[in-house]
C-alpha cells in the first residue's frame, strides 16, 4: 500500500534566520529557543564568552518583517553532526516581549493539544 504525504516537509531552520543587528549579515539559523536563551546553527564557529547583537526577522502579516533585537552571550560552541555546521548556545540579556511571544507561538504551533469541543 502506497501512502502519500499530504503536507510537504519543511526544514524549520531555513525559515528562522538570525542576523547581526548592526551589519544585517546572516550569522545562522535558530536551532531551538527557550525563555532565556537560544541555540544557533551556523557555518562558522561562534566566539565563546563574547557578546553578540542579534536580530530575528519574522514574517509580518502586512508583508513587512517583524524585527526582534537580542543581546546575547555565547556560552558554548561545538561541531554539529552536519558537516561544516556548528551549534552554539546563547544566554539572552533582557529578552524583549516580542521574543517571549515568539516562544509562545512556537510552543502552540508545535504542540499536539487536543482540540477544544465547541458548545
UniProtKB/TrEMBL annotation:
Domain of life of the source: Bacteria
Pfam families for this protein: PilZ (PF07238)
Ranges of residues in domain PilZ: 27-90
Protein name: PilZ domain-containing protein
Organism: Pseudomonas kulmbachensis
Amino acid at each position: 500500500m502506497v501512502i502519500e504525504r499530504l503536507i510537504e516537509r519543511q526544514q524549520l531552520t531555513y525559515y528562522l534566520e538570525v542576523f547581526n543587528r548592526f551589519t544585517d549579515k546572516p550569522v545562522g539559523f535558530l536551532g531551538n529557543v527557550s525563555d532565556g536563551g537560544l541555540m544557533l546553527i551556523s557555518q562558522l564557529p561562534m566566539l565563546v564568552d563574547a557578546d553578540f547583537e542579534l536580530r530575528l526577522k519574522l514574517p509580518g502579516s502586512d508583508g513587512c518583517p517583524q524585527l526582534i533585537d537580542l543581546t546575547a552571550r555565547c556560552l558554548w560552541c561545538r561541531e554539529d553532526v552536519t558537516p561544516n555546521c556548528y551549534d552554539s548556545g546563547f544566554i539572552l540579556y533582557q529578552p524583549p516581549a516580542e521574543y517571549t511571544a515568539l516562544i509562545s507561538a512556537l510552543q502552540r504551533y508545535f504542540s499536539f493539544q487536543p482540540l477544544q469541543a465547541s458548545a
